[in-house]
Amino acid sequence: MKSVSDPLLNIPEKEELYQRIAEYSDETTIIHSKQKVLYINQSGAEFLKASQAELVGANVVDVFTEDYKEMIAERIRKGMEDRTIGELMDTTVKRFDGTIAEVELYCYPVEYGDTTAIQSIIRDVTVQKKNERELLQLKKEVSTPIVPIIDGLAVMPLVGSVDGDRSTRLLDIIPQKVQGHELHYLIVDVSGIYNIDNVVAEFLYKIDQIMRLLGIGLIFTGIRPELALKAVEARVDFSQLTTMGTVKQALKKHLTANY
């Protein structure tokens, strides 16, 4: 029996061995020559929401979204002609069910049997990229410094989207952020929150309760009618919240009442 390294191993056997190895990978592995898919592993077919039979013979460039196709085609051309390794790059693919996925792409030249080819490894980073964007957005949201107005009173705007995960993180970060400011009242302006839903309504109620326990009274400004309606639908009792139309109104009322 010939060993794997035996130079007399015939071409079909080499291809079969290559495929067997690739099938163990969880990442999308595509072998293509002159843009034509010669082989894709089962993990890759499942990721692209198609069968291996559908993908073999297809143009590999068609997998990528329009804004990347020209770049990918040039990358493949260089790899085929110069036999150079393509550096890791971020790109997007359009799967057969119409969904878009963010991926990392790594390409390098191979010999597939007697065919000069390119092996492309596609790693799905959709969730990772989403988390990175959310973390960046969260940092922006809470990086806006608490603006002291007078002793014991400050303003903090919230902007962007607040979903379940983000509201949980904000509930942790905001109490930490106010520490050291010796606040009695904090005006929280929510006019910059652009998603109006039950999650936001519940978030405002919860952060108010948490801050009360810390001895800080919250004054919410910028609550739009749509948000108030969502609060009613979610059975969140906004009557317990101190609200004003604008930051200016809240400041005027507070300063008039206390000075």
Automatic annotation (TrEMBL):
UniProt-listed CDD domains: STAS_RsbR_RsbS_like
* Domain PAS stretches: 13-83
List each copy of the STAS domain by range: 143-254
Domain of life the protein comes from = Bacteria
Q: Which InterPro entries match?
A: Bact_StressResp_Reg (IPR051932), PAS (IPR000014), PAS-like_dom_sf (IPR035965), PAS_fold (IPR013767), STAS_dom (IPR002645), STAS_dom_sf (IPR036513)
> Mind telling me which Gene3D superfamilies this protein's record contains?
PAS domain, STAS domain
- What's this protein's name? PAS domain S-box-containing protein
Please name the source species: Planomicrobium stackebrandtii
